[in-house]
């Protein structure tokens, strides 16, 4: 592994860990502060969106995808190589799990408690496709439209909104989905619900690739900065 790839992997691990701490930790805090489920979701969505904005701004110069679907889309578009994609996805998965464990421990819960919250059904599966298509389109559209400086705000705002307009509350991220199995709290998802969520997220990513190529045919390498660093991931 090159030093450059190592830095990117560390950024992905740390960023995904903090993202999951925000998702799970704010969910735990919300349930402790209020008995109103709507208010709990509002608090959870605001914290997640705000954390995403901050994390992307801080880590974008190195790597700030925090999402295996985004990394796979980059690979399909030829923006990164297969080895880099595999390393970054492994870092995202590890970071997600670490973030959930830390969130549990910060609230004096068991480090790992397998979630019992079942999530599924045609509506929620469709929601994961929609949420993932929108997320990937927001990311690549922002960058390919020469608005890479705004991608953090676009992504954070989109995810905060998608918590509310999708029936699944917009997981839209395999690393997030797998990690949330490890906390039997507000943001958790039961292991039996994970496979279909991830399948729908991958389908959403595939649809998004077609849309990105259709809408931005002349910007195939817009994610790559002149020095070879990714501009968004």
From TrEMBL:
Keywords from the named record: Membrane, Transmembrane, Transmembrane helix, Transport
Entry annotated with the keyword Lipoprotein: no
Membrane topology type: Multi-pass membrane protein
Pfam families per UniProt: MIP
Keyword Chaperone in annotation: no
InterPro entries given in the database record: Aquaporin-like, Aquaporin_transptr, MIP
Ranges annotated as spanning the membrane: 9-30, 50-73, 85-105, 125-143, 150-166, 186-212
Top-level taxonomic group: Bacteria
Gene Ontology cellular component list: plasma membrane
Name by which UniProt lists this protein: Aquaporin
UniProt source species: Demequina lignilytica
């Amino acid at each position: 592994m090159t030093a450059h790839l190592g830095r990117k992997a560390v950024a992905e691990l740390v960023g995904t860990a903090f993202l999951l701490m925000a998702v799970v930790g704010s969910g735990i805090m919300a349930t402790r502060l209020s008995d109103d489920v709507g208010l709990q979701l509002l608090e959870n969505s605001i914290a997640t969106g705000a954390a995403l904005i901050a994390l992307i701004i801080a880590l974008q110069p190195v790597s700030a995808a925090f999402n295996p679907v985004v990394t796979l889309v980059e690979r399909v578009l030829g923006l990164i190589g297969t080895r880099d994609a595999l390393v970054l996805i492994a870092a995202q998965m590890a970071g997600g799990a670490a973030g959930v464990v830390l969130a549990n421990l910060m609230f004096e819960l068991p480090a790992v408690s397998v979630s019992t919250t079942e999530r599924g059904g045609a509506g929620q599966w469709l929601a994961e496709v929609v949420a993932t298509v929108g997320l990937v389109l927001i990311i690549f559209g922002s960058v390919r439209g020469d608005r890479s400086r705004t991608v953090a705000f676009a992504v954070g705002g989109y995810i905060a909104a998608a918590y509310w307009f999708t029936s699944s509350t917009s997981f839209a991220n395999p690393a997030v989905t797998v990690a949330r199995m490890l906390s039997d709290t507000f943001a958790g998802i039961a292991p039996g619900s994970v496979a279909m969520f991830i399948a729908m997220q991958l389908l959403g990513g595939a649809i998004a690739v077609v849309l990105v190529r259709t809408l931005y045919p002349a910007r195939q390498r817009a994610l790559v900065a002149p020095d070879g660093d990714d501009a968004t991931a």
